[in-house]
Amino acid sequence: MHVQDYVNAVENFYENTALVKGMGENDLGVTFAGCVGDPLFDERSRGVVKEVVEGVKGKSRHGVPFYVRSSGLTLDPGDVRNGMLEEMGVKRVEFFLFGGSPPSYKEACGGLSSGEDGMKAFGRLCEVIAAAAEREGGVGVDVGVKRGDRMAGELARSLGATGVHEYPTMRSNISGETGC
Q1: Which of 16, 54, 140, 156 has the greatest number of CB atoms lying within 10 Å of its CB?
Q2: Residue 77 lies in a domain
Q3: Is 80 exceeded by the pLDDT of residue 99?
Q4: Exposed/middle/buried for residue 157 (C-beta within 10 Å: 0-12, 13-18, 19+)
Q5: In which domain, by residue range, is 157 found?
């Protein structure tokens, strides 16, 4: 799909959905989440998110909140620390923490298609989560964990996540593009 197709889809939803009468605190907004790829995978993907947000907000939907769900594995913590997510126009981001320790994360992920070790990826993801959470006035940070994984939930909170969401199962479903 082209960026304008996404912008049109959002506009169409807000114009033709009786559930949404106005934008505000009850507006569920728009979430970018990949089934085939991570919306934050590379510069191109991040550019699409930014252009869609700008396209929707530039028309007439200034109050629509935008969210991103991502593995976080392809992000540079320094870029996140320097405001990359805010520059994209997203309000919240949810990262997926597949385990609460390097060994449990590695077990859940196995090897990454990029060849990177799961234990190294765990460390970088923790750094990305903390970098996003440390930005005053930045995006909100949520973390998805496997239901019952108290260690991952506690770790997410200690890294600064403001929300922890438990999912019945947590596993990677595709390739390195989606995470582990």
Answers
A1: 156
A2: yes
A3: yes
A4: middle
A5: 3-167
